[in-house]
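Sample A.
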Amino acid sequence: MTGPRTSRYARDVAVVAFAQSDHLRRTDELSEVEMVMPVLHQVLAATGLKAGEIGFTCSGSSDYLAGRAFSFTMTLDGVGAWPPISESHVEMDGAWALYEAWVKIQTGEADTALVYSHGKSSPGSVRDVLTRQLDPYYLAPLWPDSVALAALQAQALVDAGETDEPALAAIAARSRADAAANPHAQLRGAVPQGDYQVRPLRTGDCPPVGDGVAAVILAAGDLARQLCERPAWITGIDHRIEAHGLGLRDLTDSPSTRTAARHAGLFDAPVDTAELHAPFSSQEVVLRKALGLGDTVAVNPSGGALAANPMMAAGLIRIGEAAARIHRGASDRAVAHATSGPCLQQNLVAVLEGDTR
């Protein structure tokens, strides 16, 4: 074995294990701790590490979904916070928790990290909750929900001639068909497009609402090779943000995604796999253009967010799914993308590579 093809950072860091729950429409009978614990046990078992041997732990979740402040502290019961651990939390998708953990390892303060994220969207109305992300003076008081805003973006793409409704339906159909091989997906196989939610988006163009958990373990250098037969090296990672005001943005493009991809080194060599966090079929059109993905790239072979979109975990799942394909030899160089905010406002891009064979 040789090392990853490229390295631009002080330390080589890899995803060495990934686990996720089955993503379900409702988990009323489970608390967040009960959801998280089996996934944490699974990801630790994949490496043989014990919780006390992890150098740093970082989680991602949202108090808005839980409806109470500092709700993330409850899940530490599932991690095991005694004896004391080095721990942090981000009020974001778990992909950003992974970024913080990656930085921690880069500084040399840890050699391993456990990253996990969870979200229970089922108790409330996600479409209403997500309006709280908007500008509090001009947009939020109008209560435009996430589907309505995504429909504005989709209509802008249609008006610009970059897609149409049959093309969007084809994206949705391909994603659900690919998800047939994913035992964790919430929606699998042939799923009807259904009625319009907000034109031009039909039910099939929108993500399912559901609950789920994901976790990964990161490790540095030779330790990564000891823990995993074929580590998924993070050879580039970066995240950027668009202007908060939707009226200041061209919704048919995502310059923040393109900038993050450039800084992550995506354009230095071809990729064979792309796991894109595109909750709406129209957003895959935007992301494909921003990342310069051709027809030869396998896009969302897991089914993507159209098959399972647990809030605060779907972005981390994209990184985990890309890493898992490298682990089992189905991919050599992959790009993973995560997003947060309305209409692809914040975007993270990670490039993962396997050892050359």
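Sample B, a different protein:
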Amino acid sequence: MSIDTTNGPLRGLRILDMGTVVAAPFASSLCADLGAQVVKLELPDGSDPLRFLAPVEPEHALYWKVLNRGKRGISLDVRKPQGRALFLQLIEDFDVLVENFRPGTLDRWGLDFATLQAHNPRLSVLRLTGFGQDGPYANRPGFARIFEAMSGLANLTGEEGGSPLHINFPLGDSVAGLFGAFSIAAVAAERARYPDAPGRDIDLSATEALLRVLEPLPVERERTGTERARSGARATYTAPSNIYRTKDGVWITIVGSSDATFRRLCTAMGEQELANDARFASNPQRMAHLRELDDRIADWCARHAQAELCSLLDSHSVPCCKVYSIDDVLEDPHFKARGALVRLPDPALGSLPAPATVPRFKGSPMSVPRTGPDVGEHNAEIYGAIGVSADELTRLRSLQII
């Protein structure tokens, strides 16, 4: 199999992604953005739930197309003996396998780690599941909202005294995918320094990934006896930091949590006496009198239109921003100047909008990837590279193995 000639830092790394839905495919997609050669493996019937997750059109799986960007696609049913044999032949040419089946699934299919290593000792396997490979919850099905609830994230979201809330997006999957990409980059770094190191068996729990992000909560509970809870948009760890409604009905977020920034906010408000008030002299004191302070800021915002407020706050170097809709994102001049959104070439739809590669590497502009592949789109290319003839591919297709 040829190696990509892109100039990303993960160029030459070869990843076989047999994950489904969001988290695991997002991990390999991030690696593809940085130059890794990623092949997306799915069942011949195209039954990956992501193909039916909104946004979707009758003939086009839009979420699939943007999430699986930059990948080539093959189809294969590894549950069948001939499919398993072909898989083991294929895996010899890859550095990383990505999967997100329940623990023990690959083992039942005769694709346990020892078998994979026997065919490719250099192969690392990223296993991304809801709760990890062991423990009493290991075999529970994993979904983003479950990770968010169990990690405590949902408990922090919502109005004080109200119900916990999920955001209208599978954030838990995205966070897990970020940790997945980090895991892949880690084994690639190890291999670069220690070329003879054996492959790694990586156990990534999506729920533990969210726990890692929420790192101060356990020590806060133990050392202070307090439990962080829902507080609407108001931060309770720093002050002031909240979302406020303007005179013209626009929501803006303002952060004035450092002492110097708070003093500049008071100047912008024309209420310098707040900066000199002992109740608001430091962040701990502002937090102790948070409601009173927030009411003053909310009242000030309600007397001014959004454009006026943001101009005034900007002139005093106080961080603020309108709460953007997706239309605001698409039209923002900074995002346009940076090229933060790109158009992914698509053979059926021309192109589709999507976020640009993150991060950027100075002096090494990254090419814009094309959208995710159709079912088995690159079967002839990928299988042909390992010696499977066109006649054999036709036979395997007739048996629904590919």
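Observation for Sample B: Residues 1-5 have pLDDT under 50 and may be disordered.
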